[in-house]
């Protein structure tokens, strides 16, 4: 039986530059957002597996012997053959849905989160040992369904916790340390299993979100290839959720239609967005060695140009225009992040931006009916924590029984 109590976390993500253009083979930069998902792992008596996800209203518990019998009695592909490179099969997921009482076409967050947990628990334990008798509690600072990588942060936390409990990876946190991270080899294993969890939830994910949640920092994505950037700075931002719902699929289709209709006009815009991503990468990689304030005006101008381009390709929205106007009135620079058409925007804060200016901007954004967080990008990836490294809000959330 697993005998230690552990807390670990993984960050969310935002697209810094390259949204929509990335669909057409251009570079996108994704960065780790320091709004995090936390997981508490502790022993569970009586041979049970318990999972609690208060953010989506999940409280479930199963007998470990029943889970092992389910795994052994599986009629299709054997669980023992599972590797982190193989997709979950339709038969496996159908069997798990029936076992958990989830309806066939269920797509609610609580159903998908439960399904991902069961799949990862069975598949990982099949490869590395028996189903561990553990109690898992997950709490997140990330809103769900906002394009901020909440499901990937969840999947990365689950993968790290289950691999640790099954003995597949070490527990690197030593006495007296506040935080610790796994080796590169172990992070690669965590990432590959988290990708399977993302497949359960999303079907055909790009792998960007789970890679950001695993390694943190920033990464470059182009035509299916993911490349972590060299050491990048932590940058302060405001993250604002306009709360305007949007369909990523509809927005992607509308951009494609516009490119087909006006190729000579639209393709240069995509090329310019690509150049913005590459210029931003160069700046980010230069900043740690020479933390000069002269970089901020460049980053701000790239935000402004890209936001105009995103309006040109048709993924802006009056709520995002308002967000940009409000922050500009405080001398700040913003752009949409992700699909656009509403959703979220990011505002760059210089290292010397005054707290009064930040508070005034947040107050005005909240007065628009938006939700606003002051946070950072370039955050660390999946991390083990001692209790002393956690703030009071996280400790309180994880102490709920």
Explain what the structure shows.
The chain is an alpha+beta fold and 401 residues long. Helices cover 43% and strands 21% of the residues. It has helices at 64-72, 90-100, 109-128, 150-165, 184-202, 208-215, 248-261, 263-286, 295-312, 318-328, 355-367, 392-399, and strands at 6-17, 28-43, 48-53, 58-63, 134-140, 179-180, 218-222, 225-228, 235-241, 333-337, 344-349, 371-377, 383-385. Strands 1, 2, 3, 4, 5, 6, 7, 8 and 13 form a nine-stranded mixed sheet that branches. The protein has a four-stranded antiparallel sheet with strand order 10-11-9-12. The longest helix is centred in the last third of the chain and has 24 residues, at 263-286.
List strands and helices in order, with pairings.
Elements: E1 6-17, E2 28-43, E3 48-53, E4 58-63, H1 64-72, H2 90-100, H3 109-128, E5 134-140, H4 150-165, E6 179-180, H5 184-202, H6 208-215, E7 218-222, E8 225-228, E9 235-241, H7 248-261, H8 263-286, H9 295-312, H10 318-328, E10 333-337, E11 344-349, H11 355-367, E12 371-377, E13 383-385, H12 392-399
Helix pairs in contact: 2-3, 3-4, 3-5, 4-5, 4-6, 5-6, 7-8, 8-9
In short:
This protein is of the alpha+beta class and 401 residues long. 43% of the residues lie in helices and 21% in strands.
């Amino acid at each position: 039986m697993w005998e230690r109590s552990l807390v670990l976390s993984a960050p969310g993500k935002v697209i810094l530059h390259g949204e929509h253009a990335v669909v057409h083979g251009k570079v996108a930069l994704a960065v780790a957002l320091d709004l995090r998902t936390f997981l508490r792992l502790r022993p569970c008596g009586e041979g049970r597996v318990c999972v609690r996800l208060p953010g989506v209203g999940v409280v479930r518990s199963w007998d470990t012997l029943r889970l092992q019998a389910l795994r052994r009695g599986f009629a299709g592909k054997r669980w023992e053959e599972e590797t982190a490179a193989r997709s979950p099969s339709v038969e496996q997921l159908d069997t798990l849905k029936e076992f958990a009482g989830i309806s066939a076409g269920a797509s609610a967050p609580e159903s998908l989160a439960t399904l991902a947990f069961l799949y990862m628990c069975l598949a990982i334990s099949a490869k590395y040992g028996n189903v561990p008798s553990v109690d898992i509690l997950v709490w997140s600072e990330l809103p769900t369904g906002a394009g901020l990588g909440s499901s990937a942060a969840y999947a990365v936390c689950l993968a790290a916790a289950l691999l640790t409990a099954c003995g597949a990876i070490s527990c690197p946190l030593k006495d007296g340390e506040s935080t610790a991270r796994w080796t590169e080899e172990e992070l690669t294993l965590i990432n590959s299993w988290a990708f399977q969890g993302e497949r359960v939830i999303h079907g055909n994910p790009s792998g960007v979100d789970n890679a950001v949640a695993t390694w943190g920092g920033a990464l470059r994505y182009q035509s299916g290839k993911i490349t972590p950037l060299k050491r990048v700075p932590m940058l302060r931002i405001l993250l604002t959720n306009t709360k305007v719902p949007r369909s990523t699929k509809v927005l992607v289709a509308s951009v494609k239609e516009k490119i087909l209709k006006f190729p000579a006009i639209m393709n240069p815009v995509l090329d310019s967005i690509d150049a913005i991503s590459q210029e931003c990468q160069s700046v980010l990689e230069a900043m740690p060695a020479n933390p000069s304030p002269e970089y901020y005006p460049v980053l701000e101008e790239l935000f402004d140009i890209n936001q105009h381009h995103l309006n040109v390709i048709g993924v802006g929205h009056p709520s995002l225009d308002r967000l940009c106007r409000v922050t500009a009135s405080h001398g700040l620079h913003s752009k949409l992040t992700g699909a656009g058409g509403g959703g979220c925007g990011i505002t760059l804060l210089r290292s010397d931006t005054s707290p009064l200016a930040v508070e005034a901007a947040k107050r005005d954004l909240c007065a628009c009916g938006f939700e606003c967080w002051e946070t950072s990008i370039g955050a660390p990836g999946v991390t083990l924590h001692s209790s002393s490294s956690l703030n009071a809000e996280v400790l309180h959330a994880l102490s709920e029984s």
